């Protein structure tokens, strides 16, 4: 009899590989409202500048999908209570979407609802989240504002930009299927502060200060950008990490070629690419039109030279 294959089985590997193959390039065109509550503005700037592509394992991607699949069931659950739930905007047939800062900041709502038993006449922004048992226990003990400030920030932005004054947060424990529900009141001042924070990140040519200079700081240890931020890791080569690019109303502009850049071009970059000096772990000691020379931490010099004749996107 043929021996059973070692775990992980080829099928399991293939399932996860399928998720990994479909995860895209790990760059998001806009700064998402779902992450504006992050405590480190520098991490947001790195996200927006595509410094480190987001890569996830197949297992984790499948877990994210579980969260999305849960949304349909929660909508069904709310409708069963008599609520009217709109998952898509009747005017567009697509998810309700908010935008600000010339399209650079945005997000999509899980839905809106009216007829909720707690306040039947009031429209609510709906936000659905799945949690691990540990996260769920913390949430139920402290409430969403203290336990999950990123989720609270996301809802404040959604309320502010839709003009809806209440949010309805529905959390699911992935281990037990227990539900936790909270209503959140709009706080215009907080939303304005978050919008200002988004603007500072989007239009900054240099990264904001680190949340900690200690690479072992707990938020840094779990940060996707740890290598670039605290070590000598290299940033991805895209237009967004190039010193010639600027986020402007409605898109990205390249001053080297004096034109706007489509998202596909931003991803490809061109042979004139020069890193934003903050992304190089060295000190600038010389610069020309197409070169920047650095003294690196070990005392060596390195020239970022854009005169090399490589294939050009421009
Ligand atoms: S490593 Fe730390 S300081 Fe650097 S971006 Fe991440 S959280 Fe911020
Ligand atoms: S098109 Fe070339 S020069 Fe312009 S921002 Fe992109 S990489 Fe830099």
| Sheet with most strands | 5 strands, mixed
Strand residue content: 15-25%
Which architecture of the largest domain would the CATH scheme give at its second level? Alpha-Beta Complex
Mean pLDDT: 94
Low-confidence stretches: 310-314
CATH class of the largest domain: Alpha Beta
- Taking the alpha carbons of the first and last residues, their distance comes to 60 Å
Helix content: 25-40%
> How many helix segments?
10
Bound molecules: iron/sulfur cluster
Strand order of the largest sheet: 2-5-6-7-8
Assign the CATH topology of the largest domain. Answer: Lambda Exonuclease, Chain A
**Rg measurement, Å:** 23 Å
List the helices and strands and how they pair.
Layout: H1 10-21, E1 31-32, H2 41-48, H3 58-80, E2 84-86, E3 97-100, E4 105-108, E5 111-114, E6 124-131, H4 133-142, H5 144-147, H6 149-162, E7 166-173, E8 179-185, H7 188-202, H8 218-221, H9 226-230, E9 245-248, E10 251-254, E11 259-261, H10 263-268, E12 282-287, E13 291-296, E14 301-305
Parallel strand pairs: 1-4, 6-7
Antiparallel strand pairs: 2-5, 3-4, 5-6, 7-8, 9-10, 10-11, 12-13, 13-14
Helix pairs in contact: 1-3, 6-7
The structure holds iron/sulfur cluster (2 copies).
The site of one iron/sulfur cluster (SF4) has 13 residues, from loops.
């Amino acid at each position: 009899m043929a021996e059973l294959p070692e775990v992980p089985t080829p099928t399991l590997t293939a399932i996860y590989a399928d998720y990994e193959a479909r995860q895209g390039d790990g760059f998001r065109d806009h700064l998402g409202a779902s992450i504006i509550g992050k405590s480190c503005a520098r991490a947001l700037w790195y996200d927006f500048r595509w410094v480190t592509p987001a890569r996830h394992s197949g297992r984790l991607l499948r877990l994210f999908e579980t969260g999305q699949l849960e949304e349909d069931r929660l909508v069904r659950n709310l409708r069963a209570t008599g609520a009217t739930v709109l998952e898509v905007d009747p005017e567009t047939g697509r998810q309700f979407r908010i935008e600000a800062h010339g399209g650079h900041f945005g997000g999509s709502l899980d839905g809106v609802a009216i007829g909720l038993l707690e306040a039947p006449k009031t429209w609510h922004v709906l936000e659905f989240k799945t949690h691990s048992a540990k996260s769920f226990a913390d949430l139920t003990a402290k409430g969403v504002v203290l336990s999950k400030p990123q989720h609270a920030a996301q809802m404040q932005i959604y309320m502010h930009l839709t003009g809806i004054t209440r949010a309805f947060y529905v959390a699911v424990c992935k281990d037990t299927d227990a539900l936790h529900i909270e209503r959140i009141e709009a706080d215009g001042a907080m939303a304005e502060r978050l919008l200002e924070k988004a603007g500072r990140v989007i239009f900054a040519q240099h990264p904001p200060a680190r949340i900690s200079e200690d690479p072992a700081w707990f938020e840094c240890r779990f940060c996707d950008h740890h290598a670039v931020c605290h070590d000598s890791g290299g940033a991805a080569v895209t237009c967004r990490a190039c010193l010639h690019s600027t986020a402007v109303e409605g898109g990205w502009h390249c001053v080297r070629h004096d034109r706007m850049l489509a998202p596909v071009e931003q991803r490809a970059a061109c042979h004139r690419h020069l890193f934003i000096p903050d992304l190089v772990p060295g000190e600038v000691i010389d610069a020309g039109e197409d070169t920047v020379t650095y003294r690196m931490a070990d005392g060596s010099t390195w020239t970022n030279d854009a005169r090399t004749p490589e294939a050009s996107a421009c």
